[in-house]
Amino acid sequence: MSTAATRLELFTAVPARPLVVVAHPDDGDFLAASVLSAWSRQGAAATLCVVTDGDAGSDDATLPAGALAAVRLEEQRRAAAHLGVGDVRCLGFPDGVLENTLAVRRALVRLIRTVRPDLVLTMDPTRHWMGRGYLNHPDHRAAAAAALDAVFPSARDLRAFPELFREEGLAPHKTRWVLLGENEVPDVAVELRPADVENKLLALGEHRSQFDAGPMADEVWRWARAAGARAGVELAAEYRLFDLADNVSQRDGAGPDAEPPARTTDWG
Ligand SMILES: [Zn+2]
């Protein structure tokens, strides 16, 4: 969390097709439920992608493999419905042992080229811990790192995973904005209405196999008010923003028929 003195810029753009990428069912509701609610009521058609199957989220040795994954995906779909999000995808990688492999990146490139988001929201892949009491889950870092690597450069580059275009017709796609949550130095805030915070609590409340969301309510409201105060509004959610539109090293990925600009540096 940033200090009270930090002033956050309001991010007022409403993405038409935001894509949230997280490791586990429930991560997206801690990370982005309130902003998904806010964007949905303003017309966005969001996609929530869960990279693992969530099957490791229990200490019950009697549960058969895959049983918890099915429960958690259903919980995630119900949670997303509170936010106006009807498109929930699970990439099905094994929970607890996720790494930022080329297989994960390729699956995310396929998703990005299919959904063609204008904004990707994920966690901060550099975050190893928070405060004294929380070590970040390695799956969170791996999913976020893979998401960023998929956004840039692989989803944009025709010659990255060329079979995706050749065999599946998935043309390159450049994402305009990236937001990272749970970042130590957030620089933007998305303004919320009280209903967005209430919807976040309803979404969190669906993950009954994992936790009781009831006692979280005060803290969720406190987070939203604190971020709002830093942005000069009543309620907000805070993120770190990357706007890739103006970066000259990142050609626009207009498609396989577009002439790529001459590459005069090795940045690309
Ligand atoms: Zn998680």
Summary, kept brief:
The chain is α/β, with parallel strands linked by helices and 268 residues long. The chain has a domain at 17-57 and 66-185 and 239-245: Rossmann fold, CATH 3.40.50.10320. It has 7 helices and 10 strands.
The appropriate CATH architecture of the domain at 17-57 and 66-185 and 239-245 is 3-Layer(aba) Sandwich
| Estimated structural class | alpha/beta
* CATH uppermost class of the domain at 17-57 and 66-185 and 239-245: Alpha Beta
Helix content: 25-40%
**Quick one: how many beta strands?**
10
Largest β-sheet summary: 8 strands, mixed
CATH topology of the domain at 17-57 and 66-185 and 239-245: Rossmann fold
User: What general form does the structure show?
Assistant: globular
Low-confidence stretches: 254-268
Order of helices and strands: EEHEHEHEEEHHEEHHE
Bound molecules: zinc ion
How big a fraction of the residues is strand? 15-25%
Rg result = 18 Å
Widest sheet, order of strands: 1-9-10-8-5-2-3-4
Mean pLDDT: 92
| Cα separation of the termini | 32 Å
Word description of this protein:
- This protein has helices at residues 27-41, 67-81, 102-115, 138-154, 163-168, 194-205, 217-231, and strands at 9-10, 18-22, 47-52, 87-93, 119-123, 129-130, 134-135, 177-181, 188-191, 236-243.
- The chain is α/β, with parallel strands linked by helices.
- The protein has a domain at 17-57 and 66-185 and 239-245: Rossmann fold (3-Layer(aba) Sandwich), CATH 3.40.50.10320.
- Strands 1-9-10-8-5-2-3-4 form an eight-stranded mixed beta sheet, with helices on both faces.
- Helix 1 (27-41) runs antiparallel to helix 6 (194-205), helix 2 packs antiparallel against helix 6 and helix 3 (102-115) packs across helix 4.
- It is globular and about 50 Å long.
- The model is unreliable at 254-268 (pLDDT under 50).
- Zinc ion (ZN) is lined by residues 23-24, 27, 137, 140.
- Zinc ion (ZN) binds at residues 23-24, 27, 137, 140.
